[in-house]
UniProtKB/TrEMBL annotation:
SUPFAM superfamilies: DNA methylase specificity domain (SSF116734). This is Type I restriction modification DNA specificity domain-containing protein. PANTHER family: TYPE I RESTRICTION ENZYME ECOKI SPECIFICITY SUBUNIT (PTHR43140:SF1), TYPE-1 RESTRICTION ENZYME ECOKI SPECIFICITY PROTEIN (PTHR43140). GO terms for molecular function: DNA binding. It comes from the Bacteria. GO terms for biological process: DNA restriction-modification system. Keywords: DNA-binding, Restriction system.
């Protein structure tokens, strides 16, 4: 491979440094923009599920220490008013059942043909979950980044998780957003038990949560569906632009060091 003179090497390196520095600065700005979007998304969720959509709504004490104030027209109710615990082991039907997993992106289907991470020798001990049911990770709750999800389809998931059948789609949607807020600030710490920071299904269902009027709850989840969807779309576009910038950076370096582009100063 031909090697350019040292003076040309220095010139090429200088041009590459300037170009890659500009790209790196742009990537940093876009990354910060994504961070701000995620902060805004979380703030919108927190405000909506704890105070509703009216910024001037009068508040009252909920009577529940961990909740604090709620809007005057709201009540509080135990989770057992909205959720029913269920466990249905899949058994030998596991071979014909989709494998689902709780992730930061929600409940997603796992690819068994190209598995990643640890997989059990058998899925017969996994549990069924139906579309629209809620799944919670109620152990290691301080270390788990996402402890709540709603199944988009029927499937099975590890029996380490806890599955609940919601009273209705409306309350599944509201509680999903409410527990995204709870997750973010790890608000359930007073209820943890043991070294694994676990909440058993019975005590979990006794936890008191806000109870907006049905119309308020529907307005809240519709609003959050719209606003979070717009933010998620913008985040995805920005992430894609970062990916393209990084690809361009790599291609630029490769092209420069292999002589496919000329970065030498004009004579």
């Amino acid at each position: 491979m031909p090697v350019p003179p040292v003076t040309e090497q220095r010139s090429i390196l200088g041009s590459l440094d300037r170009a890659t520095t500009c790209i790196d600065a742009l990537v940093a700005k876009k990354t910060r923009f994504i961070d701000l979007l995620r902060e805004k998304r979380q703030a919108l969720i927190t405000h909506a599920v704890t105070r509703g959509l009216d910024p001037g709504v009068p508040m009252k004490e909920s009577g529940v220490d961990w909740l604090g104030e709620v809007p005057v027209s709201w009540g509080v109710a135990p989770l057992k008013s909205f959720l029913q615990f269920r466990r249905d082991i899949v058994g030998t039907d596991s071979a014909n059942t989709r494998l689902l997993s709780l992730t930061l992106q929600g409940v997603i289907e796992r690819d068994l043909e190209n598995p990643t991470g640890k997989m059990p020798a058998s899925f017969d001990g996994y549990q069924r979950i139906s579309a629209g049911e809620m799944v919670f990770c109620l152990f290691d709750m301080d270390e788990t980044p996402r402890t709540v999800g709603v199944a988009p389809q029927d499937g099975m998931l590890t029996s380490a998780y806890t599955v609940f059948r919601p009273q209705s789609e409306l309350w599944a949607r509201y509680l999903y957003y409410f527990f995204l807020h709870v997750d973010e600030y790890k608000r359930l710490k007073p209820f943890y038990k043991g070294l694994r920071k676990t909440i058993r299904p019975g005590p979990f269902l006794s936890i008191q949560v806000p109870r907006p009027r049905d119309g308020d709850a529907e307005a809240i989840v519709d609003h959050l569906d719209r606003t979070t969807s717009r933010i998620d779309t913008l985040i995805a576009k920005t992430e894609r632009s970062i990916e393209l910038l990084r690809e361009h950076r790599t291609a630029l370096i490769t092209a420069a060091v292999t002589g496919k582009i000329d970065l030498r100063p004009a004579a």
